[in-house]
Amino acid sequence: MKITDIKGTVNLSNGVKMPYLGLGLYKAEDGQEVINAIHKALDAGYRHLDTATYYFNEEGVGEAIKSTSIAREEIFIATKVWYTEQKYEDTKKAFYSSLNKLGLDYIDLYLIHWPHPDYYLEAWKAMDELYKEGKIKAIGVCNCMQHHLQKIIDLGGTKPMVNQMEFHPNLVQQELLDFCKKNNIQYEAWSPLKRGGLFEAPTLKQIAEKYEKSVAQIILRWDLQKGVVTIPKSTNPERILANADIFNFTLTEEEIHTIDSLDNGDRTGAHPDHFLEYFAKKNKS
């Protein structure tokens, strides 16, 4: 990944340019909150917005896009199909519902949010058709381990172009990262800051002091230098700006390895092989 500035991109396997820094919109309230956050991010130079059916804010995202002076083709918009809608016909309905809520003619990146073990291959077939029809510029997955990816590859159609995973210094999953790189699947980080759970880590604080940066900025720069697209979520104007202030320093190879060594397999969310149980418990609580 060649890192330049906030508007820098990576080339996906089909040549589509994906901005390597984006604004995550999980838990951004639909309406004025998400609109304000997007406008602030776009004004700061962000060109990548990441939402999902499950975030219940696609209409607000669409309104923000409609009300900005920035041309539609300059903004990279990702959304996702939820695991309850991954039967073939349901996926197509979910896609058109998202397209309608966003008020768009096409979506830049459409992702399987969590791979339902019984239906995600059906979802992929539906998405592949929509991609070939030109409704989607790129297709990919979230929360897919190597065995999920291999089953999609074995279908023989379009391969996933992106795999969005929980990724932070405590959860590197280097083998999966290497598998994606080998298969030209762009790795992308959700929860890159571990929901603030790494801000007091002594190793990261020491590196942050050296560069006169925050721990968050060190982590986000590490993401990019690992070749990982990152989408920190925030609706706070100051944090949105701070998360983009990562282009005036470069971590050394030794520092990259030091941060890698913090990997202990700790997750903030579900393991992809057990997410159904995770959400069942979450919905009961």
Automatic annotation (TrEMBL):
<dbReference type="InterPro" id="IPR023210">
    <property type="entry name" value="NADP_OxRdtase_dom"/>
</dbReference>
<keyword id="KW-0560">Oxidoreductase</keyword>
<dbReference type="Pfam" id="PF00248">
    <property type="entry name" value="Aldo_ket_red"/>
</dbReference>
<dbReference type="GO" id="GO:0016616">
    <property type="term" value="F:oxidoreductase activity, acting on the CH-OH group of donors, NAD or NADP as acceptor"/>
</dbReference>
<dbReference type="InterPro" id="IPR036812">
    <property type="entry name" value="NAD(P)_OxRdtase_dom_sf"/>
</dbReference>
<comment type="similarity">
    <text>Belongs to the aldo/keto reductase family.</text>
</comment>
<dbReference type="InterPro" id="IPR020471">
    <property type="entry name" value="AKR"/>
</dbReference>
<dbReference type="InterPro" id="IPR018170">
    <property type="entry name" value="Aldo/ket_reductase_CS"/>
</dbReference>
<feature type="binding site">
    <location>
        <position position="113"/>
    </location>
    <ligand>
        <name>substrate</name>
    </ligand>
</feature>
<protein>
    <submittedName>
        <fullName>Aldo/keto reductase</fullName>
    </submittedName>
</protein>
<feature type="domain" description="NADP-dependent oxidoreductase">
    <location>
        <begin position="22"/>
        <end position="263"/>
    </location>
</feature>
<keyword id="KW-0521">NADP</keyword>
<feature type="site" description="Lowers pKa of active site Tyr">
    <location>
        <position position="80"/>
    </location>
</feature>
<feature type="active site" description="Proton donor">
    <location>
        <position position="55"/>
    </location>
</feature>
